[in-house]
């Protein structure tokens, strides 16, 4: 089968031919119908050889949907042809976190060498994807594969980040979304669907701010050195109850801290290497700063339910697998508005 692989440190990913995978006992083989392109892959492909945690070559793709192509021995509850989404942050399935469905925070994944598809294990940018256990699959139940695939990360990750702050997003509150790309433009829609908060979007590109407005942001502000003052002015000087940073670089993290209200939540989702110091008098009183990772299995089910209810419209641009390197190039250059999706 064809697969998009990151093969050499520092080189662009390549479309290559690899052996077709076969499901072992307990595993499920999917025919991939769509795979999402996440900015985290760009980060992965920028890591130096000495700090690279995965074996190469690595088949990319940690957002995946597909149809069941074959079942390994002993697998029940699924049938060939079933359309499913893949829950990506695999865990051991039995530790205390996994028992709660929080496999993203599995206590034993590192020790057992368990990795998500596309982030250590062969990923979804291939004609077929091997899934270790049927519990990693959620039925699509009528959702369109292209519209649904970004929800497995670009939907699930902001959903998890927002859900933990819902109690603060009361009427009259403000939520700031920094970086309105793949994750951010879904975050805006989640905030609008789940809360009465006023949503203020920040990005460096007018085109992305246009998308932010189109998907429901009340205000769109250019993300520059004056952005924090602009957001403060929009909130009568009080700041935002919840700030979600989908860039996570030094300047955006600084903005995030500068626009937080007393008792606000600052949630750093982007992995841009920025850090926010916390200490008495450094931030407004009782601001909480956190950096979450992905989301739980139950939350993925909720995100897909929300999509089925018509509350989410993910903006996508699609590419054939042969053109997947171009999708990464465009994402790297900031040219993708919404989410790029590969059709293997
Ligand atoms: P993306 O490229 O689709 O979106 C990033 C957006 O940020 C773009 O619209 C870009 O114009 C904007 N941006 C860049 N610099 C900015 C600045 N200084 N101020 C404001 N906006 C700026 O990326 P994505 O796939 O949505 O991923 C977003 C981030 O989240 C990445 O860092 C990615 O690695 C990370 N991520 C983290 C998790 C997690 O679990 N923590 C999960 C998925 C992705
Ligand atoms: Zn991702
Ligand atoms: Zn576990």
TrEMBL record:
UniProt similarity note: Belongs to the zinc-containing alcohol dehydrogenase family.
Lineage: Bacteria, Bacillati, Actinomycetota, Actinomycetes, Kitasatosporales
Taxonomy, superkingdom: Bacteria
Catalytic class of the enzyme: oxidoreductase
Domain Enoyl reductase (ER) residue range list: 10-342
Enzyme Commission number: 1.1.1.1
Protein name: alcohol dehydrogenase
CDD domains per record: arabinose_DH_like
Substrates-to-products reaction catalysed: a secondary alcohol + NAD(+) = a ketone + NADH + H(+); a primary alcohol + NAD(+) = an aldehyde + NADH + H(+)
UniProt entry tagged with the keyword Cytoplasm: no
Known cofactor(s): Zn(2+)
Keyword line: Metal-binding, Oxidoreductase, Zinc
Native source species: Streptomyces parvulus
UniProt cross-references to InterPro entries, sorted A to Z: ADH-like_C, ADH-like_N, ADH_Zn_CS, ER, GroES-like_sf, NAD(P)-bd_dom_sf
An example Gene Ontology molecular-function term: zinc ion binding
Keyword Signal in record: no
